[in-house]
């Protein structure tokens, strides 16, 4: 009955769907009929074909009219009329953009009516990336060849390969030049993202987990005991720390075990073992149970020990008093008393106050008096027997200290005022008043203002210091350095202004043990001088300046070998500033000390131990000389100022000195720096001499202020032969030879200095090519590095020292060379500027220029002496040497050419040249700035003259003839040119003279050189033949270079330079001569062999250069100025040349078909075809996908064919065959095949499971009641018009194609697989596992219980009462279940025959059911 009702319901549902589906089919047919009716009215004119569109129609005009969408080609559209093209032209579409036309001239009818001159091609018209070609006889005269991925007349549009979108499954499409690119969402792959990625293929789930494939990811259903995204982690049951009391947890799969610490037991170590159960404690002590141990509490007994078994010791009764420490010894005890106590039990207090230690009636309090603690403030707060030893004194008022010994009455009342400091002093006090403040105070308490400085008489900037003495106010003067006296009125400053001054002092006998000391301040600029000398005979003590440093010298005797002690200080004290120095001798010590100013710390003094016992110091050091001595002479005399001179600590005041003891010493110090006014001229260095100055003049300047200079000697004025001769009149005895001078010249060569004796010339200095040359002893020659003939003044110096010669030029010193010593002897002769014999060829001739300050060692060689100095030589003879460094008139000879203006310089001139001329004499004309060449040519400037450079085009009848002008002097050893041609056999250049000839030609496309040159009698010479390694007749430019391998030789091999960087040079096998026979009288033919020859060149040539001389393309009448170069070839033929490189008009016939664009490649064309066309002339249709051959897929062009990428569920060449996934399925035991996405799945019947339903579900034991029909969850119908599918077991439709979102416990594309939670055998002890939805249930045997049957009911710890209770409850539950099952079966049978129809979930949610796909209802739906 149930089966019949199901069949009827299914048939009824099919009928409803068909009724709804037929009107939809009829509506679609009606729409197609209406669309087709648009073209039935024949709206297109002029034989245009009507094409259907989704919502409109299109007219496809027949050629030559353009194809215009939604256009009827009526007469109002000007583009469909042919009148826009004039004359014999036809209207053609460009093919670059719909509706764009060009005018195509008919062959042979070129004319202005066809606009043949409109060949405009501009990059801006086509954009930056497209190629623009000129299109002859078309308007606008150009066409754009678009790069791949662009279209439009100006390539302004990008080709959109994403319309329509070829990408599947929500992929993002991006249009590229080579086609669409699909960016897949996660979970899909393939060119069009049509393949769903099965993430479970790689078995990502571990530990026996089940993998569920999702879109872009996967889900792993883990076995019990595992977790993680891939079930890679074992669940750590120990993570919750189930083991108590520090037990160690051991993780197992889906379980754990505990290892308990000692003292605990139980499954989770929850039970603490009672160690006190054996009562281990003795003598009534309390036992305290602890972890794995116990403790005996002996506090309530007198016993000790672990178990309270040891009786108490003698110290237990605490016999020791006053905190003493008790120590047990062999059944007895001893007490260790703290300080202050004694006795066996430390019971006796030692009395520290019995000796009455406190004075001044102070009260003694012992620290052991416990009763006073808390009441006596001097005692601590609490009593401590450990610190009870000692006493403290309680002092009466006015006394303090540990024993009350200090009287504190004086300063406690603060008697001192105005910031003074109070100090106790002999039972009273003393006030220390402030010494630095605006108002000073004095008196006993510093309370009385000091007014002694009011109206004081301190002089010379002295500071006044007031005081108060016995009630009387007064003051004292603190003098500035250089003054003394009660009012600082006496000056202690004195000066030594002239050489030979001194001060002589006599000191009395003071005894042998007295210190000898002198202290003084001084200022001077002398680097070497004497400050003082003490002692004149025998022992002397002197203080000097040596090289600006202080030096103290003690000598036992004036003899040189006498015993001496010397001290020095490093400071520079000759700077004209004040310095104070002290010298001390006493008790075997010699001290030198710089007092002020000195910033060097330890370097400000120096000390030495001396042996003075044998010296009679007290008698020898009575006499002291300051600044000099009475012996006279200026050596070492002091010039400067001194002040504050102390001799043996006694101040020496100048006004007290006797006149007999003072020589040239004046009071005061009048000094200023004589160099501040800058008296030295010409960069002279000024030296301050205290009372004057000295100028150190640089060469060549002399005089007191360096204002004069040595007279310059002029040689070669007006190109005369000038020279001077000096004779050495004394013996120059020196180990160093030194020769120097100042030099100025513009001449490159000439003799400067020559030294000679009676036998030889042993030193020469001359100019050679503008550089200095020096030769010594006719052996070694040294050359300067820089040019000195630039008209500037140069300092020149030669030094020969210790066998080494060095040359110096200005500030540069050049390399040295080893030479023999140079010795200048008496009566040797020195020649300057030239020799007496008039030889002009030696050393480059006579010198022309100026010499100044010529010196030989320390002797001056003065051409025009200033004075009669004995340190100079005068010339014996001078010829045409004049004083001063004057210049001749270089412009008198009019050296400037071409109208240049001359300006004189020193021994030179400069030309101010007119425009377009250059050179020192304006001799060079810049011809190219005058534009001498025709507009098509480029001017190339030569050393003299110019050439016009251009490319020319040669036709069949073009041959140029050239002759050399007869003035060519160079050797012609090369031929260089560039060529462009497509002719395979042609003569490029030919010339012959007698047996000599040269031919450059093209033979079978290769460049060939044939050359024979040389003497006819030379049998070793033979014609040279060279072939290029690759063809040159390819329409491209090629650079040709033909060279002699050895251009300096009479005969040589010839080389052809590689035409390409990958080629090797081509070298001839034989040898021949050069091309000198072309210099004169030979016809040089260029471009062919004559008008009638078949070998004339068709192509282009650059200028041909023979030996670097150009063959010109323009004659004298074709250029604006004559070619004035000396070496040149002249053009003999008068025919003009065609400038530029122009080929035939190969695109005139429009050879490219189907709208292709013709590109001229020099006598060859190339077609750029529109998309969809190919071939040499665009004659092949390459758009094989234009007919949309792929029915259920995407078409891609493969050369001249195509390939189809099929949609899911289709196959075949054109994707025309629908794939039946379930054909040949392997579902067993009645399993139903479910169509899927490129796969299928098996829906298994009851009692079977597995991917192919080939695994039988285990039979349940007899005591397990299993429902005959397992519960079923609702289903969902999903999909679209093309495909639909069913989601089982409560699965929901997914956004991903052909996929379901499953509830927990189910898997598969359609949630058809119920995960078997019993697969891991979770039930223990023989329990039966019953698989349920997303869980399992264990049915245990009678003697086991628990969730996984883990509890053994027969265990000893389970009481019989509990077992009996469980058994009774189980029997009652079974009886109740049996009764309920019986009633339910009866009720169901009654409702099946008497009930009404109950709709399924699928019928209630009819919106989810698509009517175009009829499916079987789910198994759980039935009539009840």
From TrEMBL:
Note the Gene3D superfamilies from the entry. Answer: 2.60.120.200, Laminin
Q: Which family does it belong to?
A: Belongs to the Crumbs protein family.
Keyword set includes Lipid metabolism:
no
The record's subcellular locations are: Apical cell membrane; Cell projection
Here the disulfide bonds are 105-114, 146-155, 184-193, 222-231, 260-269, 337-346, 395-404, 479-488, 697-706, 913-922, 1169-1178, 1185-1195, 1206-1215, 1244-1253, 1302-1311, 1340-1349
How this chain sits in the membrane, per its record, is: Single-pass type I membrane protein
Top-level division of the source organism's lineage = Eukaryota
Q: Which GO terms describe its biological process?
A: central nervous system development; establishment or maintenance of cell polarity; hematopoietic stem cell differentiation; Notch signaling pathway; positive regulation of cell differentiation; regulation of non-canonical NF-kappaB signal transduction
Q: Any idea where the Laminin G domain is?
A: 492-669, 713-885, 950-1141
Q: Which GO terms describe its cellular component?
A: apical plasma membrane; cell projection; cell-cell junction; protein-containing complex
Output the InterPro entries linked to this UniProt entry.
ConA-like_dom_sf, EGF, EGF-like_Ca-bd_dom, EGF-like_CS, EGF-type_Asp/Asn_hydroxyl_site, EGF_Ca-bd_CS, Growth_fac_rcpt_cys_sf, Laminin_G
Membrane-spanning ranges? 1362-1388
User: Which residues constitute the signal peptide according to the record?
Assistant: 1-29
CDD domains xref list: EGF_CA (cd00054), LamG (cd00110)
| Taxonomic lineage from the root | Eukaryota, Metazoa, Chordata, Craniata, Vertebrata
| tRNA processing is among the record's keywords | no
Question: Keywords of this protein's UniProt record, alphabetized?
Answer: Cell membrane, Cell projection, Disulfide bond, EGF-like domain, Glycoprotein, Membrane, Repeat, Signal, Transmembrane, Transmembrane helix
Pfam families, A to Z = EGF, hEGF, Laminin_G_2
**Name the record gives this protein:** Crumbs cell polarity complex component 1
């Amino acid at each position: 009955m149930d089966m019949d009702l199901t069949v009827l319901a299914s048939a009824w549902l099919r009928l409803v769907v068909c009724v709804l589906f037929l009107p939809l089919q009829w509506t679609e047919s009606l729409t197609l009929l209406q669309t087709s009716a648009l073209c039935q009215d024949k709206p297109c004119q002029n034989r245009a074909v009507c094409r259907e569109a989704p919502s409109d129609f299109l007219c496809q005009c027949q050629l030559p009219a353009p194809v215009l969408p939604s256009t009827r080609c009526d007469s109002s559209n000007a583009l469909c009329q042919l009148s826009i093209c004039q004359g014999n032209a036809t209207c053609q579409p460009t093919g670059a953009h719909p509706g764009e036309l060009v005018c195509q001239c008919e062959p042979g009818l070129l004319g202005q009516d066809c606009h043949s001159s409109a060949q405009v091609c501009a990059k801006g018209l086509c954009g930056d990336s497209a190629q623009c070609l000129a299109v002859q006889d078309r308007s606008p005269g150009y066409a754009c060849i678009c790069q791949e991925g662009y279209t439009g007349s100006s390539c302004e549009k990008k080709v959109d390969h994403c319309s329509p979108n070829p990408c599947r499954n929500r992929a993002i499409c991006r249009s590229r030049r080579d086609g669409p690119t699909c960016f897949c969402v996660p979970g899909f792959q393939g060119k069009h993202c049509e393949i769903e990625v099965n993430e479970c293929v790689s078995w990502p789930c571990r530990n026996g987990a089940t993998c569920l494939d999702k879109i872009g990811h996967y889900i792993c259903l883990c076995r019990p005991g595992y977790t993680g995204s891939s079930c890679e982690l074992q669940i750590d049951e120990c993570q919750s720390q189930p083991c108590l009391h520090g037990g160690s947890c051991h993780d197992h799969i889906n379980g754990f075990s505990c290892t308990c610490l000692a003292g605990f037991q139980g499954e989770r170590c929850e039970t603490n073992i009672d160690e006190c159960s054996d009562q281990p404690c003795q003598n009534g002590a309390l036992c305290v149970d602890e972890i794995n141990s116990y403790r005996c509490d002996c506090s309530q007994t007198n016993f000790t020990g672990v178990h309270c078994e040891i009786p108490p010791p003698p110290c237990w009764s605490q016999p020791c008093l006053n905190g003493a420490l008790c120590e047990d010894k062999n059944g007895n005890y001893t007490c260790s008393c703290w300080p202050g106590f004694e006795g066996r039990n430390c019971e006796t207090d030692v009395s520290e106050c019995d000796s009455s230690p406190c004075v001044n009636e102070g009260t003694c309090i012992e620290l052991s008096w416990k009763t006073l603690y808390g009441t006596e403030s001097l005692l601590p707060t609490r009593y401590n027997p450990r610190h009870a030893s000692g006493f403290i004194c309680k002092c009466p008022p006015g006394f303090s200290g540990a024993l009350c010994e200090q009287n504190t009455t004086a300063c406690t009342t603060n008697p001192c005022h105005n910031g003074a400091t109070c100090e106790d002093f002999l039972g009273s006090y003393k006030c220390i008043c402030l010494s630095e403040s605006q108002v000073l105070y004095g008196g006993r308490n510093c309370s009385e203002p000091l007014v002694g400085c009011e109206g004081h008489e301190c002089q010379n900037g002295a500071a006044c210091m007031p005081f108060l003495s016995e009630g009387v106010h007064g003051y004292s003067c603190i003098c500035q350095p250089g003054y003394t006296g009660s009012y600082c009125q006496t000056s202690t400053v004195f000066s030594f202004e002239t050489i030979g001054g001194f001060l002589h002092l006599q000191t009395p006998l003071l005894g042998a043990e007295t210190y000898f000391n002198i202290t003084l301040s001084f200022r001077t600029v002398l680097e070497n001088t004497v400050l003082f000398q003490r002692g004149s005979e025998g022992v002397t003590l002197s203080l000097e300046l040596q090289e600006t440093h202080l030096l103290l010298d003690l000598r036992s005797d004036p003899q040189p070998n006498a015993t001496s002690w010397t001290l020095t200080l490093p400071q520079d004290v000759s700077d004209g500033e004040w310095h104070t120095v002290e010298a001390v001798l006493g008790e075997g010590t010699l001290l030198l000390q710089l007092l002020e100013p000195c910033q060097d710390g330890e370097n400000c003094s120096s000390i030495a131990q001396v042996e003075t016992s044998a010296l009679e110091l007290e008698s020898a050091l009575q006499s002291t000389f300051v600044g000099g001595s009475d012996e006279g002479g200026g050596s070492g005399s002091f010039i400067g100022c001194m002040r504050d001179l102390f001799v043996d600590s006694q101040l020496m005041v100048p006004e007290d000195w006797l006149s007999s003891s003072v020589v040239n010493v004046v009071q005061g110090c009048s000094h200023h720096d004589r160099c501040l006014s800058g008296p030295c001229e010409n960069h002279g260095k000024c030296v301050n001499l205290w009372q004057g100055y000295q100028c150190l003049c640089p060469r060549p300047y002399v005089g007191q202020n360096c204002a004069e200079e040595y007279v310059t000697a002029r040689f070669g004025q007006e190109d005369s032969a000038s020279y001077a001769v000096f004779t050495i009149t004394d013996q120059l005895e020196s180990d160093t030879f030194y020769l120097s001078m100042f030099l100025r010249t513009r001449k490159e060569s000439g003799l400067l200095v020559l030294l000679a004796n009676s036998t030889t010339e042993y030193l020469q200095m001359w100019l050679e090519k503008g550089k200095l040359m020096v030769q010594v002893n006719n052996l070694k020659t040294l050359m300067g590095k820089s040019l000195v003939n630039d008209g500037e003044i140069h300092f020149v110096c030669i030094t020969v020292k210790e066998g080494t010669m060095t040359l110096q030029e200005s500030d540069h010193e050049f390399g040295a060379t080893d030479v023999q010593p140079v010795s200048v002897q008496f009566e040797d002769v020195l020649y300057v500027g030239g020799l007496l014999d008039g030889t002009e060829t030696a050393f480059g001739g006579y010198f022309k220029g100026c010499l100044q300050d010529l010196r030989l060692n320390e002797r001056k060689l003065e051409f025009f002496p200033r004075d009669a100095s004995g340190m100079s030589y005068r010339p014996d003879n001078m010829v045409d040497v004049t004083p001063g460094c004057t210049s001749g008139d270089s412009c008198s000879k009019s050296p400037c050419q071409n109208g240049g203006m001359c300006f004189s310089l020193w021994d030179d001139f400069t030309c101010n040249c007119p425009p377009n001329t250059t050179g020192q004499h304006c001799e060079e004309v810049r011809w190219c700035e005058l534009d001498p060449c025709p507009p098509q040519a480029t001017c190339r400037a030569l050393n003299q003259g110019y050439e016009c450079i251009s490319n020319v085009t040669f036709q069949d009848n073009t041959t140029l003839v050239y002759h050399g002008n007869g003035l060519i002097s160079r050797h012609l050893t090369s031929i260089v040119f560039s060529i462009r041609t497509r002719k395979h056999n042609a003569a490029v250049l030919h010339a012959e003279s007698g047996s000599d000839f040269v031919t450059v030609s093209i033979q079978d496309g290769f460049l060939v050189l044939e050359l024979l040159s040389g003497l006819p009698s030379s049998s070793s010479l033979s014609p040279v033949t060279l072939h290029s390694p690759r063809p040159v007749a390819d329409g491209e430019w090629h650079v040709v270079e033909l060279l002699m391998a050895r251009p300096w030789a009479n005969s040589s091999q010839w080389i052809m330079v590689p035409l390409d960087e990958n080629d090797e040079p081509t070298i001839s096998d034989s040898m021949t001569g050069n091309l000198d026979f072309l210099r004169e009288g030979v016809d040089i033919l260029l471009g062919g062999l004559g008008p009638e020859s078949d070998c004339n060149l068709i192509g282009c040539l650059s200028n041909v250069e023979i030996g670097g001389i150009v063959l010109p393309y323009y004659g004298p009448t074709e250029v604006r100025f004559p070619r004035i170069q000396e070496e040149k070839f002249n053009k003999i033929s008068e025919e003009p040349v065609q400038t530029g490189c122009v080929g035939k008009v190969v695109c005139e016939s429009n050879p490219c078909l189907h709208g292709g664009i013709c590109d001229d490649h020099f006598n060859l064309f190339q077609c750029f075809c529109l998309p969809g066309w190919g071939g040499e002339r665009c004659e092949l249709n390459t758009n094989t996908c234009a007919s949309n051959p792929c029915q259920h897929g995407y078409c891609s062009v493969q050369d001249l064919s195509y390939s189809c990428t099929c949609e899911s569920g289709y196959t075949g060449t054109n994707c025309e065959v629908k794939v039946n996934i379930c054909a040949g399925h392997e579902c067993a035991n009645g399993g139903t095949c479910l169509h899927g996405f490129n796969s299928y799945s098996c829906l298994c019947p009851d009692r079977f499971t597995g991917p192919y339903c080939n695994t039988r579900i285990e039979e349940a034991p007899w005591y397990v009641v299993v429902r005959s029909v397992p519960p079923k969850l609702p289903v969902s119908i999903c999909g679209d018009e093309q495909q639909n599918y069913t989601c089982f077991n409560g699965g929901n439709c997914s956004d991903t194609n052909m996929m379901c979102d499953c509830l927990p416990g189910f898997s598969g594309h359609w949630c058809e697989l119920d995960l078997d939670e019993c697969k891991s055998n979770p039930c223990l002890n023989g329990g039966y596992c019953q698989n349920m939805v997303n869980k399992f249930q264990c049915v245990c045997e009678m003697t086991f219980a628990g969730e996984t049957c883990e509890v053994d009911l027969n265990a000893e710890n389970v009481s019989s009462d509990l077992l009996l209770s469980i058994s009774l409850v189980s029997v009652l539950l079974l009886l109740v279940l049996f009764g309920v099952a019986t009633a339910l079966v009866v009720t169901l049978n009654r409702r099946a025959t008497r009930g009404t129809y109950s709709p399924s979930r699928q019928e209630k949610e009819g919106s989810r059911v698509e009517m175009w796909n009829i499916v079987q209802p789910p198994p759980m739906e039935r009539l009840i």
